[in-house]
Amino acid sequence: MQARTVRDYIRTIPDFPHEGILFRDVTTLFADARGMRLCVDQLLAPFAGDRIDAVAGLEARGFILGGAVAHQLGCGFVPIRKKGKLPGRTFAQDYDLEYGKATVEVHVDALEPGARVLLVDDLLATGGTARAGIALLERLGTEVVGCAFVVDLPDLGGRAALEAMGMPVHALCSFEGG
């Protein structure tokens, strides 16, 4: 029997959240102990041995992945949350959605300047959320060493946008189409 890949654990749900969308659901990956271990190990593999001071996770599935990756790397974890969810003073960054705008925030004292940070999330589509997260981390004076995602949707251009910023992008699998 052939070994399963991370992609094998991800289910596709048609017409969610809107008709014509093929939603890539990673909750089936998270629910399987072997799949989750495989995922975390592969997300951190390119960065193992590098000095990583913290992992930043994008709300919400990036919290699950980022916390696990930070644990394995032996470093701290920083959440990048939707506006209004963090209790302390924050920096905010707006970004574009398909229909409108959104805002993410990070605590102003989340990291020391010069910290080396890995940004983690489940899915890379247009790259808007990731670009906003990078902007926040750079505003803190950190060095973003790379971005790690479970799924890349290359047709939506997120990887190209991040790479155009000079950002290394690591994704475990890709799915064609949006």
Top keywords for this entry?
seven-stranded mixed β-sheet; alpha/beta; two-stranded antiparallel ribbon; 178 residues; single chain
Could you give the topology of this structure?
Elements: E1 11-14, E2 22-25, H1 27-31, H2 33-44, E3 54-58, H3 61-73, E4 76-82, E5 90-97, E6 100-107, E7 116-124, H4 128-139, E8 143-152, H5 158-164, E9 169-174
Parallel strand pairs: 3-4, 3-7, 7-8, 8-9
Antiparallel strand pairs: 1-2, 4-6, 5-6
Helix pairs in contact: 2-3
Portion of residues within helices: 25-40%
Q: Mean pLDDT, nearest integer? A: 96
- What series of H and E elements makes up the topology? EEHHEHEEEEHEHE
Structural class by secondary-structure content:
alpha/beta
Strand-residue proportion = 25-35%
Largest β-sheet summary:
7 strands, mixed
Total helix count?
5
Q: In angstroms, what is the radius of gyration?
A: 16 Å
**End-to-end gap:** 31 Å
Low-confidence stretches: none
Shape: globular
Number of strands: 9
Give me the side-by-side strand order of the main sheet: 5-6-4-3-7-8-9
